[in-house]
Specification:
alpha/beta
């Protein structure tokens, strides 16, 4: 698949996430909503469900105002707005983390407004060093895995968990590589395409997202065309310094003997005109 087709696929998934979620439902997957932040998606995937990223939307907020004040987190308000407008009816469950006060309020209001979506409240420790924090987190993850097994009918196993962890670690590695390559191909990978390529992972199966990222990274890693390279070499070998151009030569310089305040002001205007002329030169475009 060509690079443009890969980017189009990612953009289409982000523009129409309901299609991707519906395709997963038709394939027999359960869908678990994952609002911010730190939801263990590996456990969800290992239990045969598809984690769906919920990070709000660029929509107006109307019905969600019945549950939250105007100053409440916009991301969480738009998630509830999506639910109240039936955009999240395909979800079988949702996981709420409790890492800020607004997330706690959000979880309670979401459950009250949309009781047909099964909730799980995942408390996570705020510190990592003490042994009791690790024990608490392990116990909560075990309860979460048991809830997922009951919801999906596929209990967690060591083998499925190892496969999910490996898959998601590969996804993170590919995303880091893509970000590095995108930084060196800014004309090919625009901010919009970069955003959509990463965001599409919120709605796609991780295995499919990995295939897309791998193909994109391979395409970006190929040597550039010789024409672009020769043009670059011509610019590099130009006798004109990189910060100057012929426009500077066409504007007369101010006399070095100007000492009065008036002449110094005129000299400054001349320098500004020189900069303006240089900014119009092709070398700065």
């Amino acid at each position: 698949m060509e690079l443009n087709q890969l980017f189009s696929r990612c953009a289409d998934v982000c523009a129409h996430p309901a299609r991707a979620m519906q395709a997963a439902k038709e394939a027999g997957k359960r869908l678990i909503g994952c609002p911010p932040v730190y939801v263990p998606e590996e456990l969800i995937y290992a239990c045969g469900a598809l984690p769906v990223g919920l990070w709000g939307a660029d929509i107006g907020i109307s019905r969600a105002k019945e549950y939250f004040p105007a100053f409440f987190c916009g991301v969480l308000q738009t998630i509830l707005e999506l639910g109240l407008t039936h955009a999240l009816d395909c979800l079988d469950g949702i996981v709420f983390t409790q890492l800020c006060d607004q997330l706690k309020c959000f979880s309670q209001n979401f459950t009250a407004a949309l009781p047909h979506i099964a909730p799980f409240y995942l408390q996570q420790p705020q510190v990592r060093e003490p042994a009791y924090a690790a024990d608490f987190l392990e116990a909560r993850y075990a309860q979460f895995a048991a809830w997922l097994g009951d919801l999906t009918g596929k209990p967690l196993t060591e083998e499925s968990l190892a496969q999910a962890v490996s898959l998601y670690n590969e996804n993170r590695r590919l995303l880091r590589e893509f970000s590095r390559l995108a930084a060196s191909h800014t004309k090919t990978v625009t901010p919009f395409l970069r955003s959509r390529t990463i965001k599409s992972g919120y709605f796609l199966d991780c295995a499919e997202h990995n295939r897309i990222l791998r193909a994109v990274n391979e395409a970006l890693s190929r040597p550039r065309k010789s024409g672009a390279a020769s043009a670059s070499s011509r610019r590099a070998s130009s006798p004109t310094p990189p910060n100057f151009c012929s426009c500077w030569k066409s504007i007369p310089s101010a006399s070095p003997r100007t000492t009065s305040r008036t002449n110094r002001a005129a000299s400054a205007r001349t320098r500004n005109r020189r900069r303006c002329a240089a900014s119009r030169c092709a070398i700065f475009r």
